[in-house]
């Protein structure tokens, strides 16, 4: 087993990884920016190294500084968490070239799945359902218009190198496509250094369902179960639950089989997630993307399976067998819900950083809080607005919803703005309570105001 682990990340995911490392007797090494010096993950690690100023490019994305920290502390392995360098194939290669263990999939798998067009084509060849769309980048707006004519409007315009809901727009007609194509292309070039654009069918009513996979050390790929991720704002997730209330046993079998095919197509190792769009009317689902890392929402899968996914990642990276029986891992128990507690206002979801003056976490049976902040810490504007994840496990969905309502009421945060009031509203909302909701639920709860001419 790995004996020392550098965590190339921050906040709640760094604390999360440190917790497992401590339980396994692995020395944890944190890297941090100057802006994060007072956060809990820095003091909780066995050792911590400052790798630069607040700007992520100079700290958490600074490969040279992170590798220097690994060398100076004698780290044996690197865990990238999520975001930052976690899906950077070149970083993975550099880590391994330095003689360190990379706790993640191969650089080749990251590369294969990092380009959405290449990923779509690989999945189609492997027999995984993909939505109608372009097989090659739409190099010009004329090519995009021609592709859309064959697909049918509305279409989704997507940055081929994008992720996390970024670089996506809907075009309802040709005029809209002309506008959105230029916007997405410019955004993609600026954010990802790659202006390649994908055009695919847009589903007005769709659910976002994903499957957790693990590529084991012995070469097998196993699919655990699915997560429902349809409560989103600006294509970014706010709430996840497992299992999905929309997935029947028969549909689940199809999801799991497709996810295994996806992993096997790229020789996947370690933890990954196969994301899909589900048409609730027809029961059809289509491959969306594969996230080649640990997901933010991994705790709900942990709770219903009774495993520690970070431990499984470390075991795979060490060449060890999993803690579970791959033949029976599909079995689940209970229902779990995760709420992303963000430093943003609960109406418009705009960031609201600030110093935390009150931080009281809820507790009780079936309640878990993975937090990056605490009393007297400061949420700065330099990073993602996620402050904590509130996770509950119930005997069934009704019990989980009741525990979530109580936990939201018992979570007190003052200082930064926060979206706890939104969750209190959502957990009483008829559409969400019914389980029959889709990715438009937040937009229906928060309809855009029409400006008067």
UniProtKB/TrEMBL annotation:
PANTHER family membership: CARBOXYLASE:PYRUVATE/ACETYL-COA/PROPIONYL-COA CARBOXYLASE, METHYLCROTONOYL-COA CARBOXYLASE SUBUNIT ALPHA, MITOCHONDRIAL-RELATED
Organism: Actinoplanes auranticolor
Key words of the record: ATP-binding, Biotin, Ligase, Nucleotide-binding
Protein name, entry field: biotin carboxylase
Gene3D superfamilies: ATP-grasp fold, B domain
Stretches assigned to the ATP-grasp domain: 120-318
Listed SMART domains: Biotin_carb_C (SM00878)
Biotin carboxylation domain span: 1-447
GO function term, MF aspect, one: biotin carboxylase activity
EC number: 6.3.4.14
One Pfam family cited in the UniProt record for this chain: Biotin_carb_N
